[in-house]
Amino acid sequence: MFRFLVGGTFFWLRALLEGLDEIPSVPKEVRMALQREMKEKGLDALFRRLCEVDEETVQRLHPTDTQRILRALEVYEATGTPISSYQKGNKKPVLEANFLKICLILDRQNLYERINERAKEMVSSGIVEEVQRCLDMGYSRDIRPLRSSSYVPVLRYLDKKISLHEMCHEIAKAHRHYAKRQITWLRKEKNLIFVQAYDKGQLFSEVERFLSSG
User: Fold this and answer.
1) Diameter of the chain by CA atoms?
2) Same domain, yes or no, for 44 and 111?
3) pLDDT digits (tens, 9 = 90+) for 157-184
4) pTM strictly above 0.70
5) Domain boundary among 37, 57, 86
6) Is cis: bond before 8, omega within 30 of 0?
7) Contact 13, 65 (CB under 8 A)
8) Sequence-ordered strand ranges (E) for the chain
């Protein structure tokens, strides 16, 4: 039997094939307390506190990585153990099978051109109106979705800090940087085969090689 997993965020493929770290659940009260502390004292204060309790994790984080800083601190606050200690445990894959990992890639110029066009399509499809509706419904600007690379420039536009053209440029620029980080991350992945997106010959060749290997 053959299964195809298509994505998307590569993290989920790694979770399926390699497993996830077994980290204890964190009480909601701990998470909420840290969020309040961040609003009162700022992210820098939380980052400095994390430096004192989990130096290993700090070395892997950027000082502005709100999500991961909060996550590392909440695990320590709830368990008294650094999250880096849990991440050294044995993982058990969800799916144990032979698999072929293929990543379809485009040359950088083609990729960036498509990203630029996608940013224009997002604007013409109503991303500004979408964000405005969220604000009108009472959602905070600080919620995670509205802090993403697609929405932050829209908020700046709605605040009249940048023009519509600048907003579109900032969205495309952020997506290009994200794509670059993804490629860098993927190149560190083990046993991942890169295939040009339009090269069917290479794709079929890799699949045939995999199937013939048993």
Assistant:
1) 61
2) no
3) 999 999 999 999 999 999 999 888 888 8
4) no
5) 86
6) yes
7) no
8) 101-105, 192-196
